[in-house]
Amino acid sequence: xxxxxxxxxxxxxxxxxxxxxxxxxxxxxxxxxxxxxxxxxxxxxxxxxxxxxxxxxxxxxxxxxxxxxxxxxxxxxxxxxxxxxxxxxxxxxxxxxxxxxxxxxxxxxxxxxxxxxxxxxxxxxxxxxxxxxxxxxxxxxxxxxxxxxxxxxxxxxxxxxxxxxxxxxxxxxxxxxxxxxxxxxxxxxxxxxxxxxxxxxxxxxxxxxxxxxxxxxxxxxxxxxxxxxxxxxxxxxxxxxxxxxxxxxxxxxxxxxxxxxxxxxxxxxxxxxxxxxxxxxxxxxxxxxxxxxxxxxxxxxxxxxxxxxxxxxxxxxxxxxxxxxxxxxxxxxxxxxxxxxxxxxxxxxxxxxxxxxxxxxxxxxxxxxxxxxxxxxxxxxxxxxxxxxxxxxxxxxxxxxxxxx
Length: 405
Ligand code: DI6
Ligand code: FE
Description:
- By secondary structure, the protein is an alpha/beta fold.
- It has helices spanning 80-87, 92-97, 102-111, 114-129, 146-162, 185-201, 219-232, 248-254, 268-277, 285-290, 299-305, 325-334, 340-346, 349-354, 380-384, and strands at 4-13, 23-32, 35-41, 51-56, 61-64, 66-68, 133-139, 166-174, 207-212, 238-240, 259-262, 280-283, 309-311, 371-374, 391-396, 399-401.
- The protein folds into two domains: 4-64 and 362-401, Urease, subunit C, domain 1; 66-354, TIM Barrel, CATH 3.20.20.
- Strands 1, 2, 3, 4, 5, 14, 15 and 16 form an eight-stranded mixed beta sheet that branches.
- The two termini are 25 Å apart.
- 3-[(4S)-2,5-dioxoimidazolidin-4-yl]propanoic acid (DI6) binds at residues 101-102, 105, 175, 211, 239, 242, 287, 314, 316-319.
């Protein structure tokens, strides 16, 4: 029989949409194996069950495990020199057009061994986990060849097998044009579309993404990638309207995209299309901050339209070298004017939806037992402070995770 554990004497932000924060002032949880068996008020748990372990949380705060639903975690090298160049006046686009930017990370990534890629990515994942992250999306996109994209996806899958965290993988071959395809973007898209079935056959792909922008790919090229994904039955998402408006969000929504990400230049018609398709708006304040963008995503209009907003780190070496989802909570509030509750739903409930995961993102009986225990009275504190990590420990699939696991 699966054993039952009781976690009692907690303040719980379940994130259930039925009330603010899904708040339970004096709460308790029962886990049964990897699942939540019961969530409710202290003392009111079902009494007819044999409890094999009991933890008194002494009034600590419990939230769903955090979900970082947009990262580019697998890569080699860094771009600190490019950061310096930008401080001397070069723009992100100028550097990309001159063959630096993403391409320089591609060079370093191709030169690295799978072991080196794994160990660098595992180190990064552990930093995120220490702040309560229990589910992590990882994109490829720094290999840009059949061999190296495959290698990066395989490394991401390996992280999911070897670390106590759920890893969801996204194939982002259409991230940038590799050197060897200069002037032949359409040929490169042909190649990307050829790799996808093979990557899928290996079980490496949960979703397909592209970068639709002036320094990325055109809407017509993006559409071809989406057609291939659709034929394989894979969901899509898109880096859309980050640096300019290409009407990428409407295109992605037409393919039922899980999420459209960045969205600084999102138009009203893009919002309407996303709302109709049920596509999540993935806000990435780290990239906005690090590139010193001043064109804010249309948060008010998204809110008015009822488009769910998620928040993620976009961790990558070029535009968002941050490894703190708690910092993103703060920045979503200070830079994008989300309320602390909206920001929290963005890293839990709506982040799960952006990954197409229905078994997590809130604390409810029958869902996964993924939760974080905090030395805090209320989750708004984590949106308010930064540089402070009050995560006491995390439970992933019913099992207590410590720093060393
Ligand atoms: N948009 C971004 O912000 C990242 N990728 C993308 O399509 C940047 C990736 C990089 O600069 O390495
Ligand atoms: Fe990204």
